[in-house]
Design a protein that fits this description.
This protein is mainly α. The protein is about 75% helix and about 0% strand. The protein has 17 helices and 2 strands. This is MFS transporter.
């Protein structure tokens, strides 16, 4: 029976897009207030804040190759996707009860563990639910929905902060943490009752030569590792806005602009990557990353800061979408979870020191120096991708 489609996307991919919209709305309700919560409520210093944010960003990826492999082994994806979303949802809501940086870190780590459990199996399920040669379109749609949730999240947070303006800031933050669990729970229910597994039967063995033995893929993973060293946490962009004198509420507005650009560009970029070379699009993404970082480094006016957030949104849309589709295209049918998980794991390991380095440069020199460092790393990654990876 031919699978039902909606907007030219398979029903499974559409549903997973809705789930990601809800989960990211949940995550982004709290993401813009977390940097201020860390520094102003919990009293964590600049370098330590950078390290904590980097650790949080990195930890999820350490689990991705493991659960990608396990989901390949059993040819079952949905159970890992549902459990991962559930763990993240519970840990986000529980932030309402944190009293120290240790409580905060423990719950954020659990959130990232949940992401680590679900991401590779979910991406493999998206690849398996896509038409051959159109993985970029599917991943682009998923990323668009994910990011529309990220647009909605800060806007909901802004509305809640305005509604709770008579409350002490700390108390308002705790209410937002608790309410963030609601859309996440709805997403978990959608996965459990509507999403379908697409893998082969558990007992069926599919053999082949792993794409991970390819020199081209290994070189790409080396470049991914390098570029990840220049992928600072979003928190630094909000700290930049704060440094220029903008309030927390205005920072939420900048973050909403970034996510709007991210959401609007993800689907057309994914669609376009199916028509041309995914390698070219990824290479261009590193160049856009360098440009965004330089704009953040030298921003002094509102227009320049807004432009930095625009280019940052385009960069993240490219690098959070196309490499997954690229890896899915390279992987054999028997190893999509493993190969996509390998990408996420390599990326995650090197993202952690990136935020530590930028945090150190911020504390020792200035935030400007941290952004210039990130721009330099991304320019190098662009050159290596252009000349060392074959199309």
């Amino acid at each position: 029976m031919k699978e039902r489609k909606i907007f030219g996307i398979s029903w499974n991919v559409f549903l997973l897009g809705i789930v990601s919209f809800l989960n990211d709305m949940s995550s982004e309700m709290i993401a813009p207030i977390v940097p201020t919560y860390l520094t102003d409520v919990l009293g964590v210093g600049k370098a330590a804040s950078g390290s904590i944010m980097g650790l949080i960003e990195s930890l999820s990826s350490l689990f991705k190759v493991v659960f990608g492999y396990v989901s390949d082994l059993f040819r079952k994806r949905k159970i890992f996707v549902a459990f991962g979303y559930l763990l993240s949802t519970v840990s986000k809501g529980a932030l309402a009860f944190t009293r120290s940086w240790w409580d905060f870190l423990t719950l954020r780590v659990l959130d990232r563990v949940g992401k680590g459990i679900r991401t590779a199996p979910r991406d493999a399920l998206i690849a398996e639910s896509s038409e051959k040669g159109k993985s970029g379109k599917s991943f682009g749609f998923h990323r668009m929905m994910d990011t529309l949730g990220a647009v909605a999240g800060p806007l909901v947070a802004m509305g809640l902060l305005a509604f709770l303006k008579s409350y002490p800031l700390e108390r308002a933050y705790r209410h937002i943490f608790l309410l963030s669990a609601v859309p996440g729970i709805v997403g978990v229910l959608l996965v459990l009752f509507l999403v379908k597994d697409k893998g082969k039967e558990v007992k069926k063995k599919v053999k082949g030569i792993s794409a991970l033995k390819s020199r081209n893929l290994r070189m790409f993973l080396v470049i991914v590792a390098l570029a990840a060293l220049g992928r600072y946490s979003y928190a630094f962009t909000l700290w930049k806005a704060k440094e220029l004198g903008y309030s927390v509420l205005q920072g939420l507005g900048f973050y909403a602009v970034f996510n709007a650009i991210y959401a609007l560009s993800a689907y057309p970029i994914g669609y376009y990557s199916d028509k041309v070379s995914k390698k070219v699009v990824i290479t261009a993404g590193f160049g856009v990353a360098a440009l965004a970082s330089l704009l953040f480094a030298y921003s002094k006016s509102l227009s320049m800061l807004l432009l930095a957030f625009v280019f940052y949104g385009v960069y993240i849309a490219i690098e959070d979408t196309i490499p997954r589709a690229y890896m899915a295209d390279l992987a054999g049918e028997f190893e999509k979870g493993t190969v996509i998980g390998a990408y996420h794991t390599v990326f995650g390991i090197f993202v952690f020191p990136a935020s530590m380095i930028v945090g150190y440069l911020w504390q020792t020199y200035s935030l400007k120096v941290g952004f210039v460092y990130a721009a330099t790393v991304n320019l190098l990654a662009m050159l290596l991708m252009a000349f060392l990876v074959k199309d």
